[in-house]
Design brief:
This protein is α/β, with parallel strands linked by helices and 88 residues long. The protein has one domain. It contains two helices and four strands. It has a four-stranded mixed β-sheet, with no helix packed on it. Helix 1 links the parallel strand 1 and strand 2. The relative contact order is 0.16.
Length: 88
């Protein structure tokens, strides 16, 4: 990427390393982490989510769409107010 991201949503347990690298280079960084990850790191927090399961589900739907077996498309409601809490 031409510029490093200012906000990183991480599912990795060693986020302090990323924060240290950005800090050493004086780059802005805001982390978004699960509530159960690295409680000592300043970050925006969200309730625990299983991104590996989400990835498998997306791949499954994508594969079925390519095979023509996914069925008819349907709309989904998106929560535009996800209640992410800041935990300094």
């Amino acid at each position: 990427m031409p510029e490093p991201p200012e906000i990183v949503i991480s599912n990795h347990s060693e986020v302090a390393i990323l924060k240290d690298i950005f800090s050493a280079r004086q780059l802005p960084l805001q982390l978004v982490l699960r509530t159960d990850m690295a409680p000592w790191v300043e970050a925006w927090r969200y309730s625990q989510a299983d991104y590996h399961l989400l990835a498998r589900e997306i791949w499954d739907v994508f594969s079925r769409a390519l095979e023509g077996t996914a069925g008819e498309p349907r709309s989904h409601l998106v929560d535009f107010n996800p209640q992410i809490k800041f935990n300094p």
